[in-house]
Write the structure tokens for this entry.
Amino acid sequence: MPLRSIVHIDEELCNGCGLCVTPCAEGAIEIVDGKAKVMKEELCDGAGFCLAVCPEGALTVEKREAPEFDEDAAAEKVAEKLAAHVAIKQHCFNCGRSEMDAVLFPARNKGESTWVCVKCLPALIHG
Ligand code: SF4
């Protein structure tokens, strides 16, 4: 195995908050039994975008023997994550129209961040 840069997770410091999972575009990090783990070393490019989000300082980039970074597999994972994100459609909280049917605006309703469509917005403003 080649010597290369790869993320190291200090399990003693990790509190399992999961904040490092999302910034890992390649999906290399998962939470297992309450601790972050680099599940597929070949998906970790060692860029370290996850480091800054860790509140415990549990993440570092180290040089060690690890499987070669698999660019094709990582690109596939990035595409999967992107497709899953795009598939989530926003809906108007009032009438249920999706962003495919109407223009939606971000709104706050009963203390919650939500979306309202262009047809329901006037009623929301004027009552
Ligand atoms: S962000 Fe840090 S503390 Fe949170 S799960 Fe990841 S490594 Fe653990």
Q: What stands out?
A: The pocket of iron/sulfur cluster is lined by residues 9, 14-20, 36, 53-54, 56, 58-59 (CB under 6 Å). Residues 16 and 32 are 8 Å apart (CA to CA). The chain has two domains: 3-87, 90-127. The longest strand covers residues 3-9.
